[in-house]
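ok trying this again, last paste got cut off
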Amino acid sequence: RSARPRVAVLREQGINGQVEMAAAFDAAGFEAVDVPMTDLLAGRTALDMFHGLVACGGFSYGDVLGAGAGWARSILFNEALREQFTAFFSAPNTFSLGVCNGCQMLSHLKELIPGSQHWPRFLRNRSEQFEARVSTVEITESRSVLLSGMQGSRLPIAVAHGEGRVVFSDDNALETLRNSGQLTLRYVDNHGQPSTKYPTNPNGSPEGITGLCSVDGRATIMMPHPERVFRSMQLSYRPEKWLDDEGPWLRLFQNARAFVD
């Protein structure tokens, strides 16, 4: 189709994954628009101009206030931005994605995102160091519109974070998320089993959990980077029968386009 719906590629000081993210959405048929937070603050652009938003990876504000916390507070403590993001998240025809630092940031905005009140925080890796590696994740059955039709897949994916360990607010939160279909991704070992051990679980999250979605599935957050492996040539290994350059993670971005259509 000739029409290319617009997706806002959000970035803040310290974010560094916006170009890869824009390329992935562009490959799926979107018009990816670079949206610095300063443009939203100054009124040069507004979220109601977009069908989707994605918060990218990096180190917003150097993570000095906690990973993603400073970025989130620039929204929560600004009345105009708070209202704008609340309206966007509440609109039934929009989608949102948070990856790595963007995942951490959106988790701090859960009071604005319908159906995300049980989302966890993302704290320091148990290894006490930054982890940059290729990990294997399994896509679980969930309500995420971005992972539709991908359930059961076990795929390699890039990981790069220092604060990705999932910590729930109470003992009932995990079970609530499980029962409501909000758990989307988990690290698995070489036998395909949920991993709780390092290094197949790089941050120490319980049950290997590394991705979640809202109750209605329109908001999805994850620590790994699908935008870094959406082309098959970006994988360290690919079956010979994969003749084209479309990697399996491109499906996530194509699902976003299918949702908009």
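PB: full thing came through this time. The chain has seven helices and eleven strands.
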